Structure formats: C-alpha cells, structure tokens
User: Fold these one by one.
Assistant:
Number 1:
Amino acid sequence: MAQVTWQSVTFKLKADADAWADPDGELSRYVTRQRKYNIEAMQLEGTYIQFVGTTDIIGAAKAARLYPEQQHIYNWMRVPSVGGRFPAGLDANITAVMGCVNNAPFDGGRFATGTLLCGAPEIVEQLGPNGVIEYDVKYLLAFRPDQGGNGGWNVKFKVGTGAGTGWQPVEIGNTGGLKPYPSADFKKLFKLA
C-alpha cells in the first residue's frame, strides 16, 4: 500500500504559464513576505540641542529627527539550480540591483518608486524533494516612506522655515545630478536570466 504525505506551504502555488502571464512573474508565486520595523535617528546639519528658553548649548551634539523604516524580507523559495549551480543570470541580476532603490512601483504597487533599498541577500542551497539542488533566496529590502513624491532614500530633511525646507531631494555634488542611491529594476530579482 502506497503512503501519501501532505505538507502545507506558506506561499502561492501557480503553474508556470500563470506565473509568466502575471505582471509580477515569479514574484507572484513561491514567495513569502515578512516585515520588521525599525527607527533611525537622522542627524540634522546646522543644528544643535539647547535648554529651552536659554542659549546654553548641550555639548556639541547635532539635533536628530527620528525616521521610521521597515525591513521587508522577500523569501523566494525553491529556486531551481541550473546544471547543479546557482543560476548565473540571477546572480548577475542580484549584483546589478544591490545597493540600489526601486526605479518603479514594486510588488503590484505596494511600494512607490525610490522607497526600497536592496541590501545583500541570504542564499541557502538545499536538496529539493526531487533530489535536485535548489535555493531559497532571502532578499532584504529596506523601506522608507515616500516624501512628497521624491522617494524615501534620495531625500534629506533640511532645517529651516519657509520654502525649500523640510524633506528635499538630494544629489552628490559636482556629479551632474547623480543620486546617492542609484535606481534599478527590482523585478530582476525574481528572474533567472
């Protein structure tokens, strides 16, 4: 008598044709999502901390503003090996996207352009149920909320009152408009070639 064992999965199952027809492609299946909250203290240039009602400065510390962030973890499971090795095309895509912000809305519009920063992924090699090597690829995407249509990563808070203060877009000086965080197509992270 044959025995069958069922195991539940934590990701969406889709046939190849259905996944390829979906605008999000592989992101629409075999992917789990997690979120962790974080907060960063961003120092404000040209500021200091003083006692209220006095001019007594407290040390040389710059004032800081707390800035909310989230870490979004996308775990793409059961990525097939190619010839028993990690897919070279996916490896090249990961290398091209690390350190960049998303150049378009991502994950069905869940994240606005410029609000995700791709960190270094964690990759686990394992033997799949069919005896073939496969991989779990865990992407770490840091999220900052959009600031006035300027994204969340290529902006800084400018102290002052009046026009030109608050969250402002930034660039690297003397580079002709080069942004601190370049942009890339995050959909490449879920393509084997």
Number 2:
Amino acid sequence: MKRALRILLYIAGSLTVLLLAAMLGLQIYFDSDRGAKLVQDLAGKYMDARLDFSRLTLSTMKRFPSIMLDADSISITYPHSRFDSCGSAAVSSRLLNAGRGEEADTLLSLNSLHLKVNPWHLPARRLRVLYADFEGIRLFAHEYDSTHANWKILPPSKESDGESFIRWISLGHLGISGRNTFVYTAAQNTVFAGAMLKSLELGGGM
C-alpha cells in the first residue's frame, strides 16, 4: 500500500513539475519577439486586417492558476483604399472620416488591455474571463451598404457556419477607463453617431 502511494505521489509530483515548466516556458516565449510575431501571424490568418501592438506580455505564474495578458498600443487597421468603391458622395458628415488615415484606416485601437483568464475550463469548451480592463478605446465602425462594413474583417474563406469551439463564456469584471471614443456611421441610411465615455465598471457574473 505504501509503495503504491509513493508511486502515485511521484507521478503527481512529476506531472506538476512538467506543467509548471511548460507554463514558464510559454511565458518566456510570449514575452519574446517570437511570441509577438506568432500572435500577429495568427491574427493575419483569421482577420483580413492588420494587428499591431507595442508590448505583449503573458504571465502564467504570477496569478497561478490564472493567466494574465497585458498589451499596449493595440490597433486593428486595414488599407485606406479598401472601401473606395463604396463612396458616399451623396451624404456628408465629418464622422464619415473618423478613423481614416493616409495609408491605413483604423477599425479599433486601445491604449492598453489587461485580461485575467482561467484557462482550465477550455477542454470543456468554456472560457472564464475573471477580469477585462480596457483603456483608451477608439472604435470607428462604418457601414457602407448592406454588404460592406469595415468590421467584416473575416475573409469569406475563413467564415464558417459550424459551431464555435467556445460554447460558454463568463465575465467577472469589465472595466473601461481613459478617453474612449465610439463612432458609428451608416451612410446608406444617413445614420451618423458618436459617443465619448470616460469610465465604466461592471461587476458580477455575465
């Protein structure tokens, strides 16, 4: 009996050491330039847009068993000329140019993002986000007609009618701070809306 118990303890200890080593290795990898490039490459495969950020850190040990993700100066952009064929010459509003740049237009940008996630429910296709903090959101959503909108960034070849891998998501805390700007335009329906938000705190389970 004692021998069997020692074997079980040895196996459990070995698995724990391997798990901690894997998590530490994952953290080191994502804190390197290779980790940042991997994230950008993956985003490029699933979004018809460009993802940029100035800093990306992943902490697997600081709040174990949760994983913490921090990123700064995040932006999602697309070529400036993408929707030139959907011109809105018949209507005029300064909000139509919100997010527009000389070479690239911005769909979304953030000063910073802080996430704390419990990943241990993923095998059951569940995701627990313990908290999500956003600072300095700038969202520029433009709908040009019934088939063209700048938030439709998934290429047709990547879209799927199948069931999503994640079947259940819970959010414990949502925080928004800083200077936040939200713009929505629908030129076809002459709808132009803009809003600014200073802060928002939501707690509990969602």
